[in-house]
Amino acid sequence: MSKDPKTQQPRLAELAIPVYVGIGASAGGLEATKELVRSLPTSQTLAYILAQHLSPKHTSLLVDLIGRETSLKVVEICDGITVEPGHIYITPPNRDVEMSQRQLSLHEPRAGHVPKPDINRLFGSMARDQGRAVIGIILSGTGNDGAEGIAEIKTAGGVTIVQTPSTCKYDGMPKAAIASERIDIILPPQEIGHMLASLVDAESADTLPKPPDQSRNVYDQILDLTHRSTAIDLTNYRVSTILRRIHRRMAIRQIDRMEQYLALMQADPDEVSAFIRDAFISVTGFFRDTQVFSALEKMIRQRVERAPDEESIRIWVPGCATGEEAYSIALLLQEAIQDTGRSLTYRVFATDIAPKAINKARQGLYRAEDIEGVPPAYLEKYFTPAHDSYQIDRELREHCVFSVHDATRDHPFSRVDLISCRNLLIYFDSTLQERVLERFHYALNPDGYLMLGKSETVHTAVPLFKPHLEQVRLYQRQEYPG
Q1: Contacting residues for 35 by C-beta, under 8 A, at least 6 apart
Q2: How far is 314 from 326, CA to CA, in rounded Å?
Q3: If you placed Cys at 477, which of 126, 178, 359, 444 could pair as Cys (CB 3.0 to 4.6 Å)?
Q4: pTM score, whole prediction
Q5: CA separation, residue 154 to residues 52, 291, 375, 397 (Å)
Q6: Which of 39, 43, 53, 278 is catalytic?
Q7: CA 130 to chain centre
Q8: What backbone phi and psi angles, to 5 degrees, belong to 436?
Q9: Sign of torsion, CA 166 193 107 120?
Q10: Segment 354-407, tens digit of pLDDT
């Protein structure tokens, strides 16, 4: 965590897409928010959404009060408004707010003595909607609202910032967020704006096309240290992707030169772990992308219908993260087998390089926010309420085998009918993509299928796969030519 930020604001590079900044505050938060707003960069990259706890019975003056502190455009949120950079959006009294597809929607708050607006609800929706492009900030306030939401932002690959508790009028919310152990940066509010500029600059696609010649050796040393510490070999990963992760960590730790960051990693093993966590953020969810799962459901049902009696259907989900996609596919298999009355068994092998993600997947326990994509009929049939979470049906869990596994180097599975590997190849350069696709070809049965992410193709291994439904990146294995 950084506690001694630079006082000079670095250059802010303009990105092709906005970065969305959620700000949560409660008691004592108005003063902190004013200090923060005065430091915000005048950028057309950053968009801000403020959730300040307010009395539901009083008209808010926040738009006027905040507007006096900045040249950014300050507006009150109306239902369906599209978030634009260079704006600060203020949540109205007695309303919760969520983000979906860059639009904000207003909702009735939960009944009872609960914070209004609900910061957790806003932050969670931002994390699910925009992932890495989100920064969460917690300012002064009582209670613990925002702690869960800030953890969701971090899990989705965003950056998390909290006001230094000693500068707070009320330090309950900042301390609760810090206790979540998902905070990147602790700063006084007047210094957070400079940090935002530095973070956005670190993510710029224009500033980091490749390692400078003079720092290439340092870059290689960072990869070597990471390999020795974690057994994860980043040599053939996309250089631009890894560089952005390095520079983001440098910005978080307030380090200017890559040599300094290498020294920090050498001295602090926890920083190596933090770098790896930031480098591999898996975007996952139950039934993520309706069109994709519609195609998968049809293909799985056809496979079940033509399978010989007593056969075992085998699925592999590399890069499974916390297991949502693996369970979604297992559920489709279970439904197809039951509907057709076939006497079949099945196994879903779900793998990832992150042990913590695999442990969570094995538990099969998910919060209400995590299961929003599950159709109601499946929710009732396969999920059991457990306090404030939902437990996956035991029988379904027993069909899923979760394990730590590196698809780039560990021995692949075999006799597999379907591999669903969405948004893993995007991390690899063309050489490593080709190697992994060859492994997938080996793993699949002669008529097996491969599902990739929407930004991925099999162009580096065209002879090995043919399009089945290319619009959803579903391919079928074919034999080597000749």
Answers
A1: 188, 189, 190
A2: 12
A3: 444
A4: 0.76
A5: 21, 28, 27, 27
A6: 53
A7: 8
A8: -70, -40
A9: negative
A10: 888 899 999 999 988 788 889 999 999 999 998 878 999 999 999 999 999 999
Tens-digit pLDDT profile for residues 85-95: 999 999 998 89
The answer to whether residue 145 is catalytic is yes
Q: Which of 96, 118, 145, 278 is catalytic?
A: 145
Contacts by residues 368-374 (CB-CB < 8 Å, ≥ 24 positions apart): 369/124, 369/128, 369/152, 370/285, 370/286, 370/324, 371/286, 372/128, 372/286, 373/285, 373/286, 373/287, 373/288, 374/286, 374/287
Looking at this protein, which amino acid is placed at residue 222? Answer: I
Minimal CA–CA distance to 473: which of 419, 414, 406? 419
Which helix (H) or strand (E) segment is 357 a member of? helix 355-363
Estimate to the nearest angstrom the gap between the alpha carbon of 338 and the chain centroid. 34
Measured between alpha carbons, how far is 20 from 126 in angstroms, rounded to an integer?
Answer: 8
* Three-class SS state of 81: strand
Q: Where does residue 3 rank: exposed (0-12), middle (13-18), buried (19+ CB within 10 A)? A: exposed
Q: What is the DSSP letter of 167?
A: G
Let me know: does 114 contact 331? Beta carbons within 8 Å: no
Tell me the pLDDT tens digit for each residue of 48-87: 999 999 876 666 789 999 999 999 999 999 999 999 999 9
Measured CA to CA, the distance from residue 415 to residue 443 in angstroms comes to 6
- Please name which of 328, 283, 306 lies closest in space to residue 427, comparing C-alpha atoms: 283
**Both structure tokens of 61:** 């003056």
CA distances in angstroms from 60 to 25, 34, 53, 376, listed in the order given: 14, 15, 11, 38
The burial class, CB within 10 Å (0-12 / 13-18 / 19+), for 386 is exposed
Burial of 408 (0-12, 13-18, 19+ CB in 10 A): buried
Q: Name the burial class of residue 165, with classes exposed (0-12), middle (13-18) and buried (19+) by CB atoms within 10 angstroms of its CB.
A: middle
**Residue 227 is a catalytic residue:** no
Is 71 designated active site?
Answer: no
* C-alpha to C-alpha distances, 59 to 63, 78, 89, 97, 259, nearest whole angstrom: 11, 15, 16, 17, 53
What is the total residue count of the chain? 482
Contacts of 333 (CB under 8 A, 6+ apart): 300, 304, 313, 315, 346, 348, 399
Sign of CA dihedral 129, 131, 135, 137: positive
